[in-house]
Write a structure and sequence with these properties.
The chain has 23 helices and five strands. By secondary structure, the protein is mainly alpha-helical. It has three domains: 3-23 and 31-219, no CATH class; 246-350, no CATH class; 370-491, Serine Threonine Protein Phosphatase 5, Tetratricopeptide repeat (Alpha Horseshoe), CATH 1.25.40. A five-stranded mixed β-sheet has the order 1-2-3-5-4, sandwiched between helices. A hairpin with a 2-residue loop joins β4 (207-211) and β5 (214-219). α14 (313-324) packs across α15 (330-338) and α22 (462-474) runs antiparallel to α23 (480-491). The chain is globular and about 65 Å long.
Length: 503
């Protein structure tokens, strides 16, 4: 376990923040590897995002903590936040709450104030934090000049009251979950799951992270689905390692992935990764079983999920019914959950399903699904032209996408590949670096790091190249070619006579 995580765990255990315990007889009490906490780092990052103009407001309307912080920030000398405003204006010309994702990740790997150092070596920082490193000294200066330490002290009692209110509910929900898993006596040594609650987060924003064996969830206290989100991430915490252990059993399941990828509602990260999609479907099926639905309700829920592209939920829903009638814990029953899946039969069955179109958020956004579908079609056309070596045609298509969506990662990635194929190293580097500033899928981000590593090798900057290869390996893409390419890059510099694009 990295030393910073050991120190974090030690701090959680001795700081007085109560860990959750399963309510069992004294002889069977087992400490839970789950804690619910607040974070001065996350608090400071959110204050900086607000003062710097990245987001337009803090927290839910009427929240007293958010209102108190807003008032304190409004009293600051404008010069205090000017460096942050300049930084965010350059990085994100069009402010959007989704850009908070990078800075939430950053808060998780910052050491506590007043040092504000990195809790990890720079070459081991999460990939989405890489491009935000330059905000670290700005945050340190803002923390001091804005007296955020004093402000944190003023609101911390309110945070603690919120934690005290949420912990019993969370403890019971996870106790019920462990009961379903039959894992009350099992421990997860060396692993941890931390839930950070912060009233300054935008309503409805839930950020889940996992770095190796350590899982994090950041969300606001008023989130209507607080317990659902916390349980969902906990199920990932428990089931991800089990599914990875049995990944070899999923080879035939991969034949169904192209069918699922046709569903407009299926998030991009699930379209290219069988393991991710299967794990998510198992978790959704387990959540449905825990709701104790009647037959009619269950069929309606299963239909909705299948039409959204989560095509393995039905299999697991039925397999879990058999599990409930057995005796072993889920850990030992797990191979049976994967048994009996008939990929050929499922391909034929799913071929008859009409996937639901993208949802709309009301009449004002009724055109957005058409725009999204048009974007997908353009990206597909650009990829086809690129593979046909029609680089000029591909460039025009990808540039057309950027006219409507300046931060579309697929278009930026496509332009980077086109530039690479045309031996335009500086152009490829520029587009690849822009990809890292977006919320690109993990496999695209990993390949981007590999290609940037190759470019830096060609430029003679071996140190920067190694950092990018390591960043690619740090991403849990489960794509063998990415890992192989990154490891080759670590073993020896990319050849001077090779192009940095796909090999």
């Amino acid at each position: 376990m990295p030393s910073f995580l050991r120190s974090c765990l030690r701090r959680w255990l001795v700081s007085g923040v109560p860990l959750l315990f399963i309510v069992l007889p004294a002889s069977a009490q087992t400490p839970y590897e789950v804690s619910v906490d607040s974070s001065p780092q996350l608090f400071a990052v959110l204050c900086a995002a607000r003062a710097g103009g990245l987001i337009g407001s803090l927290g839910a309307p009427g929240d007293p903590v958010a209102a108190h912080v807003e008032a304190a920030l409004a009293r600051l000398d404008p010069k205090v936040a000017e460096p942050l405003r300049a930084y965010f204006k350059e990085k994100h010309p069009n402010p959007n709450p989704r850009f908070l994702s990078t800075y939430i990740s950053m808060a998780l790997v910052l050491s506590p104030p007043p040092e504000w150092g990195w809790a990890l070596p720079r070459d081991q920082l999460p990939p989405d934090v890489w491009d935000a490193q330059e905000v670290q000294p700005l945050l340190r200066a803002f923390y001091e000049q804005a007296e955020l330490g004093r402000l944190w002290g003023e609101v911390r009692p309110a945070y603690e009251r919120t934690l005290e209110r949420l912990q019993p509910q969370l403890s019971q929900a996870l106790f019920d979950t462990r009961g379903y898993l039959r894992s009350a006596g099992e421990q997860y040594l060396g692993r941890a799951y931390v839930i950070y609650v912060d009233a300054l987060l935008p309503p409805g924003l839930v950020s889940a992270r996992n770095y190796g064996d350590h899982y994090f969830l950041a969300l606001p206290p008023g989130q209507a689905e607080f317990l659902s989100a916390a349980r969902h991430q906990y199920l990932h915490y428990v089931l991800d390692p089990l599914m990875a252990k049995h990944a070899e059993r999923l080879k035939t399941w991969a034949r169904v992935l192209p069918v699922a990828a046709q569903a407009p509602r299926l998030p991009a990260e699930f379209r290219r990764d069988t393991l991710l999609l299967v794990t998510e479907c198992l978790i959704q099926a387990m959540e449905l079983r825990l709701r104790r639905l009647d037959a009619e309700q269950a069929e309606a829920e299963l239909g909705t999920r299948e039409r959204s592209g989560f095509v393995f939920v039905r299999h697991f829903f039925e397999a879990l019914q058999r599990y409930e009638q057995s005796e072993p814990s889920l850990r030992y029953y797990f191979p049976d959950l994967l048994a009996g899946y008939n990929a050929a039969h499922e391909q034929a069955r799913l071929a008859r399903i009409q996937f639901d179109p993208l949802e709309t958020a009301g009449a004002s956004s009724a055109a957005s699904p058409a725009r999204d579908e048009a974007t997908a079609q353009l990206l597909s056309e650009g990829q086809r032209l690129y593979q046909a070596d029609d680089y000029e045609g591909a460039r025009k298509v990808f540039e057309r996408v950027l006219e409507g969506k300046p931060e579309e990662p697929g278009a930026l990635f496509g332009l980077a590949l086109v530039a690479s194929a045309e031996e335009n190293r500086s152009g490829a580097k520029e587009y690849f670096e822009r990809v890292l500033k977006t919320l690109a899928p993990a496999d695209m981000t990993a390949w981007t790091h590999v290609y940037l590593g190759r470019i830096y090798d060609l430029e003679g900057d071996r140190k920067e190249a190694i950092a990018h290869y390591r960043a690619a390996l740090a991403l849990d893409t489960r794509v063998d070619r990415v890992e192989q390419a990154a490891r080759r890059g670590l073993e020896r510099p990319f050849g001077q006579d090779e192009k940095p694009g796909p090999q």
